[in-house]
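Notes from the pairing session

We agreed to fold both candidates in a single pass and log them together. This is the raw record for the first candidate, unedited. Please don't reformat it; downstream parsing expects exactly this layout.

Candidate A
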Amino acid sequence: MRRTLDSMVAQTQRPARWVIVDDGSTDDSPQILADYAAQHDWITVVRREDRGHRAVGPGVIEAFYAGLDTVSLSDYTYLCKLDLDLDLPPGYFAGLIDRMQADPRVGTCSGKTYYVDKAGRKISEKISDEMSVGASKFMRVSCFNQIGGFVREVMWDGIDCHKARMLGWKAVSWRDPDLAFEHLRPMGSSQQSIYAGRRRHGFGQYYMGSDPLYFTATAIRKMAHPPYVLGGLATLQGYLGAWWRRAPQHGDADLRTFVRAYQREVLWRGKARTVARIEAERAGVWVQPQG
């Protein structure tokens, strides 16, 4: 947490306001946060009661909205949902804003993430270019409002990108060393095990409405990455388990249809060509933000 706090203080473009939500910490986090807030008037801490368990997905977004409820979005141009387990390069936010100003259709963006393994090697978390990273979800307020905000469920950080693209926005993560940041806890891990995290991902893909053939193909690809084979099988278990239970899916049927069509096209055209076609086709539905 201190590394995240220090990397934010060191930013060349600091946020006008940073609301940190303490979601029921039972260690010395409250005192550390209070110390930083006392030193920097742009940092505010919101304290929530401990819910008694970790709730990845819905719990994360509930905490996000607990912070968002304390500000007036109309006062700002950009917002960021930021995890407190990141180490950001000093020019991170300045670099994102420069790129967004250069292309007004970019609605949500991020750099790329990596983690450092036990041998000290930097390992890419393999974020696709057409998705922004959930750990550092940087958005135009106008885009955030138009997509209806974040869904309070697992896969919220994929649903927002698809919804934005459907409405004519661009979603992107840039492969630039100046925007690369360290994830201090590997993405997709869980308080139980990395396999629980993979199963959660599979459930989220089902919830989003992912095409079964596409998801099976991606799960097979995941078998080639640690944890080998079992990680991919765990994602399939999460997806198939949700399907077997007939678990509820995201309520926007048009978006689910859009996601499946996108994924089927990706299987035979690839992501880059599919995204380029959608962005060109959807340029006419994009609404220029006012102000």
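Candidate B (folded immediately after A)
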Amino acid sequence: MTLRAKAEPEQLVLALPHRQAQEAEDFLVSRSNAAAVDLVDGWPGWPLPAALVVGPAGAGKSHLANVWRLRSQALLVAAQRLDESAVRLFEERRTLVVEDVDRGIGSEQVLFHLLNLAREKAGSILLTSRAAPGEIEIALPDLRSRLRAIPPVMIEAPDEALIRSVLVKLFSDRQLAVEPHVIAYLALHMDRSMDAALKVVAVCDRLSLAMQRKVTRTIAAAALGAVAEPEDGSATEAGDTN
């Protein structure tokens, strides 16, 4: 993460980069994601060689997948980019993350082969998706059947308690002390997603530094307005999180 000292009035306001935390200690647990957390904690004792985490955009699927990747030393590939090279990657480590199978699969035959290899070689594959297998268009009947046989582990949209905890954590990462009533205001009025939390905190940080003030409700309201405006590119600096 990027640490910065409090700016003096005469200092220039610089757009400092901020690394998005993606490790286990940065993943906050609530009822909305507890089942998926249990899945990651239960590895390598999974009952099946493949696991599927399903949840809406911004629920934290990519973060959780990264926690498992670090723990299992897995390699990661987007489902859209699946090709024969993924087989070699899997054979090197016997663990693999395949993200966003609902957004298209580069080679359905390769994914089917990978699932077979995981079974034959006692490997592990973690898949993520925004939709359950039955809602995904898959042309290859064998792959369609194989994916539907994997019990999906659901991540629900973050509840208010989780969003509040996430906001506190993100502000703390940026060395910002924010009053509880401001956190409550943001949690009540923002979209309940990790992506929205990242964007709102990033804009609050920038406005706070530019105005030489702590993050107040006024600044929070301005940040919410900026994030809500699609033409405002400043709200996209935090990036996307699945």
